[in-house]
Write a structure and sequence with these properties.
single chain, mainly alpha, Ferritin, 5 helices, binds hydroxy diiron-OXO moiety
Length: about 170
């Protein structure tokens, strides 16, 4: 059985994953109307779906452990970006905030000696490591590319084969 404090904290994470999904959905819609960003568009759509899956996984866990998963109200995410680089910088900032939030949940689980939740959260710890790695890789490449159009062309092509968040692990 989840404690009230753990249940509330997990529900805050449900909100965070839902916000992540919305944020990447907005990036996908923006990318879709930019010329030549087909690969990036697919990447963001896929990433948005993965965040929704992260949210659902949390919801099932909360409900299965005697709690009640709350469907959160969402804020409108950023809709437009001055450049692809800015969109990926935002993605990276977002992922770092999610990692910090997961770490706080792990802390709380340990403090409460809630080992089942602690064990459940390890999947998210690994997932965030992967997402941070991927975010950093994209940001580094875009930094290198700058305004070079052929570099952007290759980035868009390559991102189609990059793992958008460890989907192989599921
Ligand atoms: Fe849910 O993994 Fe990113 O945010």
């Amino acid at each position: 059985m989840l404690s009230k404090s753990m249940q509330d904290a997990l529900n805050r994470q449900v909100l965070m994953e839902a916000q992540s999904s919305q944020a990447y959905l907005a990036m996908a819609s923006w990318a879709e109307i930019q010329p030549g960003l087909k690969g990036v568009t697919e990447f963001f759509f896929r990433h948005s779906d993965e965040e929704r899956m992260h949210m659902l996984k949390l919801m099932h866990f909360i409900n299965e452990r005697g709690g009640f998963a709350i469907i959160p109200q969402l804020e409108q995410p950023t809709l437009t970006f001055v450049s692809l680089k800015k969109a990926f910088e935002e993605l990276m900032k977002h992922e770092l905030a999610v990692s910090a939030s997961i770490n706080e949940l792990v802390d709380l689980a340990l403090k409460e000696k809630d080992y089942a939740t602690h064990n459940f959260l390890q999947w998210y710890v690994m997932e965030q490591m992967e997402e941070e790695r991927l975010g950093r890789e994209c940001n580094d490449k875009l930094e290198m590319i700058g305004d070079d159009k052929s570099g952007l062309y290759l980035f868009d092509r390559d991102i189609m084969t990059m793992d958008a968040g460890g989907s192989k692990k599921r």
